[in-house]
Design a protein that fits this description.
single chain; alpha/beta; Rossmann fold; seven-stranded parallel sheet; 9 helices; binds nicotinamide-adenine-dinucleotide
Length: 270
């Protein structure tokens, strides 16, 4: 699907990959662009970073971990902007931690990384279907295809995001709904390089396992690849080509894959 003359919504648009997606969309003459995030100041910065265009732009502050807030957001957008043709459900959080991960971290991770995508689709996809079709791009992670060292809730919820995307793609293919899931390894954003990192052992493990296993990509490079891949309607968007090899290794020799990952973890822990 092409962006030109489409109504587009991007979540997590105040920073990182979401800001880059907003910039890439703005370059392609959309009809309207809705940017959603918790962080109002960041949304204003994204607005300032967009190229001027003849499209309508709205900034919406919303806590996407909250189902009621998503309902209010969807009702407002559908009445003021109309049907969204292309939904980028990109907002996500990363909590490091192992079996001791708190209930609160589990709940936050599940609500943002999985349920915000499910809830956004619940409100926007039926309207897409009514209007003849649409496109959903969920941002998961390579952690959703493989795993994530030192970040248990992230690995599990990103698998949930991939599973939801696959379900949506299959169950609504005949309604002319197309779906992609973005699964990068390292991308240079606040998530991977948090300004106030405490550098706990788990944070170090999670961070090093990502930055030492492949190139850290620039968010603009990732967003431009996303534009290309949705143009071609490809389901799996892998900015790091090695992820396809790891994914295939995992599928074809799972026990060996697990042993090799455990060895990798040991080498990082020293
Ligand atoms: N950076 C990486 O290396 C990397 C790798 C793989 C996947 N991802 C995924 O990419 C997506 C974007 O992350 P990023 O790297 O740009 O990080 P980021 O921290 O720069 O951006 C995430 C954005 O999501 C917003 N957000 C978080 N919780 C929210 C909530 N409850 N309500 C509304 N907005 C909320 C944040 O305010 C922020 O603007 C995430 O889903 C992340 O898991 C990132």
């Amino acid at each position: 699907m092409e962006i030109e003359n489409k109504s587009v919504l991007v979540t997590g648009a105040a920073s990182g990959i979401g800001r880059a997606l907003a910039r890439s969309v703005a370059l392609r003459n959309p009809k309207s662009l809705v940017l959603v995030d918790l962080n109002q100041a960041g949304l204003e910065e994204t607005k300032a970073a967009l190229t001027e265009g003849g499209f309508s732009l709205s900034l919406e502050v919303c806590d996407l971990s909250n189902g009621d807030a998503i309902k209010v957001l969807a009702e407002k957008v559908l009445s003021e902007v109309g049907t969204i043709d292309i939904l980028f459900a990109n907002a996500g959080i990363s909590r490091t931690g192992d079996l001791e991960t708190s209930e609160e971290d589990w709940s936050d991770s599940f609500n943002v990384n999985v349920m915000s995508q499910v809830r956004l689709a619940r409100y926007f996809v039926p309207k897409m279907i009514e209007s003849g079709g649409g496109y959903v791009v969920n941002t998961a992670s390579a952690a959703g295809l493989l795993t994530s060292l030192g970040a248990l809730s992230y690995a599990v919820t990103k698998h949930g995001s991939v599973a939801f995307s696959e379900w949506l793609a299959i169950n609504h293919a005949n309604d002319n709904i197309r779906v992609s899931v973005l699964c990068p390894m390292g991308v240079r954003t606040n998530m991977l390089f948090p300004p106030n990192a405490t550098h706990s052992d788990e944070e170090n493990l999670a961070h090093r396992s990502v930055v030492e296993s492949g190139n850290v990509k620039d968010p603009d490079e990732v967003s431009e690849l996303v534009m290309e891949k949705i143009g071609a309607e490809e389901f799996l968007i892998l900015p790091h080509s090695e992820v396809a090899d790891f994914y295939s290794f995992r599928a074809n020799a799972t026990s060996k894959w697990i042993k090799s990952m455990a060895k990798y973890q040991q080498s990082l822990l020293g």
